[in-house]
Sequence to fold (107 residues):
Amino acid sequence: MRAAISNLFSIQQDHVVLILGDMFELGENEVPLHEELGQFVNQFSPAMTIGIGPLMKHTIGKVNGPAKWFPSVEEARPVVKEAVKTASLVLLKGSRGMALEQLAGDI
Fold:
């Protein structure tokens, strides 16, 4: 996830939106690793960070910039549609089990 975010921000864009889903199979360190991801995002300046899933709540809680958390893809959908309208670049990233591809048509 960190590599994807770093690579995304190596491309010069003005309005970047991060849509991040839970990272699975991290074991007993899943909460601290999600919190660390939020701190990592703070190195960059996304226009919006959207977290989806119970673990992403820990990530969004550490993001200093504009950020919103949703428990599910369906609950996030209206905000995703609005956020990406003016986005110049969007990252849609999470564990396969989060089924974030459901949002691909909204981007």
